[in-house]
Specification:
183 residues
Length: 183
């Protein structure tokens, strides 16, 4: 009887540990989404929308506003300070997506994975070709009391480059799991 109890306890501990490390891709609804991005107990505003870019395919975009404990809104810059809105990228007059992003839930908050086709060198320059994909993970972080610096930012955590070649980023994301990039 004690052996069975010991086995049950061990299984419970293993499954609890596995669940504590579980991540999942977030599917945003169009418009406003309230999510506690940094795990501080305050819901932040995530706006998912479409941007008509005067091409054959509009871009899906995501802009995040962090809400601090005092209720002030802070726009969260995209990683590498390239703007304030995450966006996918579909080739004009084509259906080939060459760049995208995904928001993932983790215990205590969220992280973002960006993906883009690799070009140059041995891969060639034609993004419409089947190419390897680079996935990059960013976790939320904050600066406290640093004048002139955004209070929240995306911190680089790691990258993974596929050996397989993909025609479209959506195809690559189907084969991606968050444990490919260790934080």
């Amino acid at each position: 009887m004690k052996i069975k109890q010991g086995i049950m306890l061990a299984l419970l501990m293993i499954s609890t540990h596995a669940l504590a490390n579980e991540t999942s891709k977030v599917i945003l609804k169009e418009g406003s989404n309230l999510l506690d991005i940094n795990g501080d107990g305050v819901d932040d505003l995530v706006v998912y929308s479409r941007f008509e870019n005067n091409t054959s395919h509009p871009n899906n975009t995501m802009t995040i506003f962090m809400i601090d404990p005092q209720g002030k809104y802070h726009i969260l810059p995209v990683a590498n300070d390239i703007g304030f809105t995450w966006s996918d990228f579909i080739l004009s007059a084509s259906t080939i997506k060459i760049a995208d992003y995904a928001l993932y839930k983790k215990p205590g908050g969220y992280f973002i994975v960006s993906a883009r086709k690799l070009t140059g060198g041995e891969h060639g320059e034609d993004v419409s070709d089947d190419l390897p994909v680079k996935f990059t993970r960013y976790d939320i972080n904050s600066y406290q009391d640093a004048p002139g610096v955004p209070p929240y930012f995306w911190e680089y955590r790691g990258a993974y480059m596929t050996t397989e070649k993909y025609h479209d980023i959506d195809d690559a994301f189907v084969h991606f799991t968050s444990d490919m990039i260790k934080p």
